[in-house]
Amino acid sequence: MAAIVGFVIGSVVNLGLVTIGMSVVPLPEGTDVSTMEALRESMKLLTPVYFIFPFLAHALGTLTGAFVTAKLAASHHMKFAIGIGVSFLIGGIAMVFNCGGPVWFIASDLLLAYIPMAFLGGFLAGGKRSQTA
User: Fold this and answer.
1) What is the three-class DSSP state of 38?
2) 87 belongs to a structural domain
3) pLDDT, tens digit (0-9, with 9 covering 90-100), for 45-95
4) What residues contact 25, with CB distance under 8 A and at least 6 apart?
5) pLDDT by residue (tens digit) across 7-49?
6) Are 85 and 115 in contact (CB under 8 A)?
7) Domain annotation covers residue 132
8) What secondary structure does DSSP assign to 9-20, as a single string?
9) Half-sphere CA count of 71, side-chain side, radius 13 A
10) What is the spatial distance between Cα 58 and Cα 14, in angstroms, rounded to a whole number?
11) Residue scoring higher pLDDT (98 or 65)
12) d(CA 44, CA 23)
């Protein structure tokens, strides 16, 4: 149950930040995000500033989900937190295959936004007590 709650809360944070990001940094004219194909084609119009909020969404969504999961888990807190990171990483990999993106963003996103943030979330939640209730 802890993993489900953490995953849902992390997903809400992720979606919220992506939504806010589109208001803070509006997409350039001519960008079409109505389909994955159109999004893939529109990637060439996006400069690095357009990737700030997606990275923050992935990192903070994972951090929040892992933290909540580790706090709620009865035992194995860090293992559950890392499990959330792996789940979000799988989603990130799927997005790379569906949307693509610049290599620098893909690399930084997949290497920094998921497993390290899940570990940090578990640690902040007191994950060192991972084998006791």
Assistant:
1) helix
2) yes
3) 888 999 999 999 999 999 999 999 999 998 899 999 999 999 999 999 999
4) 49, 50, 52, 53
5) 999 999 999 999 999 899 888 887 888 888 888 888 888 889 9
6) yes
7) no
8) HHHHHHHHHHHH
9) 14
10) 6
11) 65
12) 20
CA atoms within 13 A on the CB side of 124: 14
Place of tokens 């888990």: 73
- How many other β-carbons are positioned within 10 Å of the β-carbon of residue 81? 33
Per the structure, the count of domains in the chain is: 1
pLDDT at 27: 85
Q: Where are the alpha helices (DSSP H) in 43-133?
A: 52-72, 77-99, 103-112, 115-124
Cα angle 79-82-83, degrees, rounded to a multiple of 5: 85
Tokens standing for residue 49:
């500033």
Q: Is residue 81 part of a domain?
A: yes
* Separation in Å, CA 125 to CA 6, 19, 34, 73, 109: 12, 27, 38, 10, 23
Q: Residue 103 belongs to what domain range? A: 2-21+32-127
User: Residue 43 domain-assigned?
Assistant: yes
pTM: 0.87
Structure tokens given for 106: 């893909």
**Cα–Cα distance between 107 and 85 in angstroms, integer?**
16
